[in-house]
Design goal:
The chain is an alpha+beta fold and 132 residues long. Helix content is 26%, strand content 27%. It has one domain.
């Protein structure tokens, strides 16, 4: 599994290299997860500490059976509460968030009190980590 702490030079033309695009994606994901809390896939999870191992385990163990999926992304959003709001989503080859036939994005939202040191190191002060 390869990952990038921020957009590499080869990915500069990709949408996730644009901070405005990332903010728009975060806003859409927040709206989706806030809309229908009764749907299991849209329920947010709360953890004391989000670890790098937890993130990797989710991407490898919960990957949907969808041929469009080429990567996973962890996006951090500035929340209004202490801690971190993280989204884990699956991306197609154009870095667009993949969803099911109803348009529901594949992924999860996590409210984390803390990030472990390994995850913090990989993020390198940024808010995006891509796994391929």
């Amino acid at each position: 599994m390869r990952f990038f702490g921020s957009a590499s030079r080869e990915r500069q033309s990709r949408p996730l290299a644009d901070p405005r695009y990332v903010q728009a994606v975060l806003a859409r994901l927040t709206a989706v997860f806030d809309q229908a809390l009764d749907l299991p896939r849209r329920r947010s999870q709360t953890v004391d500490t989000l670890t790098f191992d937890d993130v990797v385990s989710y991407f490898t163990g919960e990957r949907p059976d969808d041929q469009r999926i080429k990567a996973g992304a962890l996006l951090l959003s500035a929340g209004s509460q202490p801690g971190h709001v993280a989204f884990q989503v699956f991306l197609d080859e154009a870095d667009q968030v993949c969803g099911d036939a109803s348009g529901t994005p594949y992924g999860r939202r996590i409210f984390a009190g803390h990030l472990d040191a390994e995850l913090t190191d990989y993020l390198g002060g940024g808010d995006l980590l891509i796994f391929q």
